[in-house]
Every structure is written in structure tokens, then in C-alpha cells.
Amino acid sequence: IEAISLLHAHGMAIALNSARTLGELREYSRAYGCVGGVAEYGSVVWDAVTDRTEVLVTPESREQLERLAKGLRRIPGVFLNDRYQHSLRAYSYERGRTVPLPTALVRGLAADLGLDRLRAHQTNLDTTVLAGEVDKGNGLLSLLALAGAHGVETIAIGDSEPDLAMFRVASRSFAPSQMSARAVACQLGCRIASRSYQPGFLSAVRTIVHPRGEKCPRCQACRGPHGDGLFWKTLEAADRHPFRSLLRALADPLALQAFQR
User: Fold this and answer.
1) What was the pLDDT predicted at 220?
2) Ramachandran category for residue 11: left, alpha or beta (phi over 0 → left; psi -120 to 50 → alpha)
3) Which of 138, 125, 60, 63 is nearest to 97 (CA)?
4) Which phi-psi region, left, alpha or beta, contains residue 7 (left: φ > 0; alpha: ψ -120 to 50)?
5) Distance of CA 252 to the CA centre of its chain
6) What is the pLDDT at residue 231?
7) What pLDDT sits at residue 225?
8) What is the reported pLDDT for 66?
9) What's the longest Cα–Cα distance across the chain?
């Protein structure tokens, strides 16, 4: 919240470049004051200012996505997330949680069906199948074109391998310390923060708004709230390093009593 407030306070337009659905992207954009974004790994872009949308998946690739979805639905134990309209999210269940499909299963089915315009991306939770022509970099360029913002400076922040395509086309790029494909990101000129996750995101934003590390009155106004409510305490706990949280829990007498019971 503090990082987004800093960007707004310094007059920077924010756009999301996400793996989420277009509907979710719109909700996040409206909540955080974004000017639009890229959804489903670059499959569709949305300009919030004009409320215009552009789908970047070609008809040929869409037809292949539909054929693959039909084939996956015939396999027992395979499920698809129907909220994704321009890509596929397939998964199975193992020990009560969703897991990705075996890579060989997806590739084998695609080969059997003669599907040559698709590519798969594995996450910890599911398997994403995308049109071969889309990625986060093309999505960013298409969003700029849709918004009529050709040639503007773009600064990207990401933390995973799909973000590399965005780094390639952005003017500058930043990442928290847990960035996957770190070596490639550095080759692309990405600046890696010393901290991970949300603290790393905040560190990157502070560098963006004040490269020399100074602060201004607008920065002071964006300092995080210091309320005692459960909501803010939950957010603060999520930002702590896991090891630090473990130490705090071990030092809490109430936590020890819970284990004793």
C-alpha cells in the first residue's frame, strides 16, 4: 500500500501486468487507481481510461486452445478454470490442493491433436497454456499502443520468469530478491533489490521515485498507517521475513501454550 501510494504521490501512472483474469485485473486496477493493464500473461489488454479492450490471441490460436481444452476435459482427474477466457488453466488435485498437470501429458496431447501454436507454463498450482504469440512484453507494448502512449518511459517491476519478456521492452526494470531467472534478469539490466516480496517491491519503488535515496514531503505523507486494528496487523505480519515471524511465535508464551494443549 505504501509503495502504490508513493507512485501516485509522485505522479506516476500505474498499470498491472498479470497472470490473472481480465475481470480480476479490472477489480485490482479500480481498487489501486491503475490506468489499466495486461491480463492472462499478455493475452488481453485493457485501458481503464477509455474502457477499451484488445484481445491479442489470434483466431487460429484460439481455435487450438478450444481443441486442447476439449481434450483435457476428457481426461479423468483433470480440471479447468473456466474464468480464463483467453488462455487455459488446468490442474489436478493431490493431498487436498491443486497441482499442475505433468508436462509430458500436456505436450503429448497437444502433439496428438496437431496443436503447434501453443506453449505451456508450469506454476506450483496449475498448468497455464498460452497462445504462442502472447507474452507480458507484447502485452505491455500493446497496452501502450491502445492508450496512445507511444514512446513513453516504462518502468517494470516483476519477480518471475514470465516477467523477463516485460523487462526486455521496458525502459528500466526492477525485481525483489526472490526473482526467479535472476541471472537472465540481470543480463537485461534489471536491478535486484536486497529484500524479497513486498519489502523488496517497496525498496524498488523508493529507488524509482528518488534514485539518490532522498525523501520529500510527499514521501512522508505516504508512510504506512500505524493503526492497532487487526487488518493492519495482518498486513504487517505478511510483510515480515518468515524466520523473523517464527522467532516471534516461539517467543510468545501463548503460542507455546497452544502446542502444550
Assistant:
1) 87
2) left
3) 125
4) alpha
5) 34
6) 63
7) 58
8) 98
9) 63
Write down the pLDDT at residue 235. Answer: 65
For residues 9 and 139, give the distance between their C-alpha atoms in angstroms, rounded to a whole number.
26
- Give me the pLDDT at residue 114, please: 98
SS3 44: strand
Per-residue b or e along 47-60, where b marks 16 or more CB atoms closer than 10 Å to that residue's CB: bbeeeeeebbbeee
Report how many helices (DSSP H) and strands (DSSP E) the chain contains, helices first.
12, 12
CA 257 to chain centre: 39
Which pLDDT score is estimated for 260? 59
Q: Please give the grid coordinates belonging to residue 245.
A: 515471524
Residues forming beta bridges with residue 98, ordered by sequence position: 93
| Strands (E) located in the chain | 16-17, 36-39, 44-47, 52-55, 79-80, 88-94, 97-99, 118-122, 127-131, 155-157, 172-175, 191-192
CA atoms within 13 A on the CB side of 97: 5
The class that CATH gives domain 2-56+135-221 is alpha beta
- Could you tell me which of 147, 100, 144 has the C-alpha nearest to residue 123? 100
What single-letter DSSP state applies at residue 112? H
The pTM assigned to this predicted structure is 0.87
Other Cβ atoms closer than 10 A to 162: 22
Rounded to an integer, what distance in angstroms lies between the CA atom of residue 261 and that of residue 250?
Answer: 15
User: What cell was used for 121?
Assistant: 507454463
pLDDT along the chain (261 residues), means of 10: 94 97 98 97 98 98 98 98 98 96 97 98 96 98 96 96 98 96 96 94 96 91 68 66 67 64 55
Grid cell at residue 13: 501512472
CB of 100 closer than 8 Å to CB of 130: no
Contacts for 111 with CB less than 8 Å, ≥ 6 apart: none
pLDDT attached to residue 221: 86
